[in-house]
Amino acid sequence: MIKNKPETMDDVIQQELKNTKFQKAYDQTVSAGNAAIALYEFRHELGYTQTKLAQRAGLAKSTIVRIETGIMNPRLETLQQIADSVGAHVELKFVR
């Protein structure tokens, strides 16, 4: 029988977060997911399609798609470019 077998996925994640490589990859994935949700919600508030937002921002549609699907963890400059194109700004906060 396995000792200290994790009960839930949260238990597994908490155990794995003790590994610094895993923690770094996990944090990057969470950041990409947060950017995806924020951009998706912002675009919908604007009533824009991915194509329209990409055109306004001077980016490829694939860039918007990759950010919104969490495949791409965008650079701050890219988010600022998107925000500037629609008269908005980016707010960034650090969370513990």
Automatic annotation (TrEMBL):
<dbReference type="Pfam" id="PF01381">
    <property type="entry name" value="HTH_3"/>
</dbReference>
<dbReference type="InterPro" id="IPR050807">
    <property type="entry name" value="TransReg_Diox_bact_type"/>
</dbReference>
<dbReference type="InterPro" id="IPR010982">
    <property type="entry name" value="Lambda_DNA-bd_dom_sf"/>
</dbReference>
<keyword id="KW-0238">DNA-binding</keyword>
<protein>
    <submittedName>
        <fullName>Helix-turn-helix domain-containing protein</fullName>
    </submittedName>
</protein>
<dbReference type="GO" id="GO:0003700">
    <property type="term" value="F:DNA-binding transcription factor activity"/>
</dbReference>
<dbReference type="GO" id="GO:0003677">
    <property type="term" value="F:DNA binding"/>
</dbReference>
<dbReference type="InterPro" id="IPR001387">
    <property type="entry name" value="Cro/C1-type_HTH"/>
</dbReference>
<dbReference type="GO" id="GO:0005829">
    <property type="term" value="C:cytosol"/>
</dbReference>
<feature type="domain" description="HTH cro/C1-type">
    <location>
        <begin position="39"/>
        <end position="92"/>
    </location>
</feature>
